[in-house]
Amino acid sequence: MMSIYATDWPRIETVEQARHQRDRSVDALRGFALFGVILVNVPFFAFPIYEGPAIMGTLDRWAFGGLTALAIGKFFLIFSFLFGFGFATSISADQRQGRASGPRFARRLSGLLAFGLLHAVFLFIGDILILYAFLGILLWLARDRGPRTLLALSAIAYLVAIAAQAAALTSTDFEGGAVVARANAAYLGSFWDAVRFRLSEDIWIGQPFILIFNGPAALSMFLAGLALAKSGGFPGTPGRRARPMLGCSLLGIGLAVSVASLAWVGPDYTAPVTGATVGQFIAAMARSAAAPLLSAGYGLVLISATDRWPDAHWVRLLALAGQMTLTGYLLHSVILAFVFGGWGLGLYGQVSAAQCVAIGVVVYLSLVALFSLWKRRFRYGPDEWLLRSWIELKSKPFRI
């Protein structure tokens, strides 16, 4: 296997060796990102993607405003960054052990694609694993680039992302009441009614939206994660010092821009936009531009906290969730499909924005409680075990 970038390998190898000692920081960051992703996804289970959550009062407006400013478009960036970082460290490990990385990474992407297709058809049109599987091919093609080139490509991809996300948020145009009525009938029907509707209509709206809204931004973070792994500028680097003040500064700037963009468009920011004004488009671009600042701020502050209190109970719980993010991502969809589907509790289209946030918190806490019991007996989450076994082409040890 050829080196990713020959002059960078000593630093990557050092990162890989130290990574095992700092797994808790990275896992805690993954666990925190899973929380944010669940919060963002709940409204997409609860309402048609083209309608948005119900705003029934001031509390709902604040709830959805907070979700928009603090979460939407932010947490998948953390996952994407960690995907790129993990790609670099896994190839480093392969090279040191004399293994060919190409087939292993191809199996990883094909495994993600299989999970994603099942997820999108049977549970959630907003699946992102399909996108990750295809973007992973571009990440592989970029593996020989140096850190500066990767960061330049990352910046270009994110400039595209700013325009793409603004277009996705402000240029939607659907059939209106007719398609909402069909969605309500399908998702409040049987499990198979929902599957048929996803296959016939919703998946052809949800997946293109994911491609436009998430695609360029995810690719940007893939490249940034790979670049920082090569340059030794991420957790696991020996001698790395926490930078909480930088994290707080990025959070402050990102939040100020997000809130200002919401204030600019006024009280109608919660409504789906058709034929958006120039001001609404610029406001959406501003929120997209602020997203990586907030994501980086979250990461730096959280890593600083885990450095300071590595054995704190809340750090352990976040790290536990971070060890089972694939299982958590898929299982949260099972739970939410049951909560909102007609084959379950049948709450589709019947909850407010604030209730969506509350449901997201309860689902995440429930998953963490389940994971804490699961990890007492098993080494991996069930989906992590399946994926790892497929990558290795042998059954990994499962029980402790």
Describe this structure in words.
By secondary structure, the protein is mainly alpha-helical. It is built from 15 helices and no strands. 73% of the residues lie in helices and 0% in strands.
Characteristic key phrases:
single chain; 400 residues; mainly alpha; 0% strand; globular
Short description:
With 400 residues, this protein is mainly alpha-helical. 73% of the residues lie in helices and 0% in strands.
Provide the fold topology.
Blueprint: H1 9-19, H2 23-46, H3 58-70, H4 75-96, H5 101-122, H6 129-141, H7 147-170, H8 177-187, H9 191-231, H10 244-265, H11 278-308, H12 313-322, H13 325-340, H14 353-374, H15 382-392
Helix pairs in contact: 1-4, 2-4, 2-11, 2-12, 2-13, 2-14, 3-10, 3-14, 4-9, 5-6, 5-15, 6-9, 7-9, 7-11, 8-9, 10-11, 12-14
Mean pLDDT: 86
Radius of gyration equals 21 Å
Report the major sheet: none
Distance between the termini: 33 Å
Query: Which regions have little confidence, pLDDT < 50, spanning 5+ residues?
Result: 1-22, 269-274
Q: What is the total number of structural domains? A: 1
Q: What is the ordering of alpha helices and beta strands?
A: HHHHHHHHHHHHHHH
Going by helix content, strand content and strand pairing, the class is mainly alpha
Strand content: under 5%
**Quantity of strands, as a count:** 0
Helical fraction:
over 70%
Backbone shape: globular
Number of helical runs? 15
